[in-house]
Specification:
The protein is built from 11 helices and 13 strands. It has about 325 residues and is α+β, with helices and mostly antiparallel strands. The chain has 2 domains: about 170 residues, Aminopeptidase, CATH 3.40.630; about 140 residues, Aminopeptidase (3-Layer(aba) Sandwich), CATH 3.40.630. It comes from Sphingobium lactosutens DS20.
Length: about 325
């Protein structure tokens, strides 16, 4: 097996890929190189990057990490990330995957004291590999994602199964078509200005530093690829609600939604959601809709499944300073 290599910039990663610049292109959105690169550039520009790469046979494993403090490592992820995971190229089998992850774990243990990874859909493979590499590991459920699997249903069939309170709300608030609802698959400067204006009048907290630039970068890339779905509710020509979705491998991803706080009583966001779901199901014919991380109560009315998200903390036994944190994490995992 090829010994793990480490890169500290995306320019170095791209040089390492050489004649394979599109090696990540078929991956899901959150595993693609352009997603990782944009996330680091806009949201973590001041945090050192550590990218691990290992190869075995025709398979490869990549792990994108941040180094926020000396001997501390974290996933290159934040709340824009629906999931985090090692990225595998070349379809390695389970034994090869584990061997490459273990090799990367040993490499990281040589100069690292603690590794924290979140949000993981499944921590078993990583936990096993890091354990074999000599780390103490703790997995804890720290949140969830809400999903809707369509199983061939059209929108009308899906909608009949929604809670009565939601269906009644849409029927009452939609009388007389109080809002013009439009869904775009191409981004323009004017549409982005409308998006920012609604966000500024929303109850949503302000975006973190670099957040709006990151979202615009995402919207522009997905617009070019034809995968953007940017929805607006307008009243008298003024945008009062907006939602940013993308379509990825047949899955509709709901990234951001916002509406003008002053119009809460008229529910423009709910009416826009109704239109967005209909478009995704009947026109894009997605197989699944993913509402992203967070357990906001309203999501349960629209979705039918919740999957847990896991945090994996790994501690280097040689780093005595980490023993108290390891003990606290283990106790937390035991008591839930």
């Amino acid at each position: 097996m090829q010994a793990p290599r480490e890169y500290h910039s995306f320019a170095d990663v791209r040089r390492a890929l050489g004649h394979r610049p599109g090696a990540f292109d078929d991956a899901r959105l959150f595993d693609r190189l352009d997603w990782m690169e944009s996330l680091h550039r806009h949201c973590f520009a001041d945090v050192p990057l550590r990218v691990l790469h290992a190869g075995q046979g025709h398979g490869e494993a990549w792990l994108f990490l941040l180094a926020p403090a000396r001997r501390r490592l974290e996933a290159l992820a934040n709340y824009y990330s629906f999931a985090f995971a090692p990225v595998f190229v070349g379809a390695p089998d389970p034994a090869a995957r584990c061997a490459m992850l273990e090799a990367m774990g040993r490499h990281l243990r040589s100069n690292g004291a603690r590794l924290s990874l979140y949000p993981l859909e499944d921590c078993a493979e990583l936990r096993d590999a890091l354990g074999r590499a000599g780390w103490w590991t703790v997995c804890r459920t720290m949140g969830g994602r809400h999903l809707l699997t369509l199983d061939g249903r059209n929108f009308d069939t899906y909608w009949r199964a929604r809670p009565g309170r939601l269906r009644n709300l849409v029927r009452r608030k939609g009388r007389g078509d109080p809002f013009a609802l439009t869904i775009y698959d191409r981004l323009t400067p004017d549409l982005w200005d409308d998006y920012v204006a609604v966000q500024a009048r929303s109850w949503k907290a302000d975006e973190p530093a670099g957040g709006l630039a990151f979202l615009r970068d995402l919207a522009e890339r997905e617009s070019t690829a034809g995968r953007l779905r940017l929805g607006f509710a307008r009243q008298g020509g003024r945008a009062v609600a907006t939602q940013l979705w993308t379509i990825d491998h047949g899955v509709a991803l709901i990234h951001k939604l916002a509406h003008d706080e002053a119009l809460d009583a008229q529910s423009p966001g709910t009416l826009l959601s109704h239109a967005m779901f209909r478009h995704a199901i009947d026109q894009d014919r997605v197989t699944m809709i993913d509402y992203g991380t967070g357990d906001n109560g309203y999501k349960a009315d629209w979705m039918e499944q919740r999957i847990p998200l896991t945090r994996l903390d790994a501690f280097n036994p040689r780093a005595v300073s980490q023993w108290p944190a390891a003990a606290r994490a283990m106790i937390s995992a035991l008591v839930g």
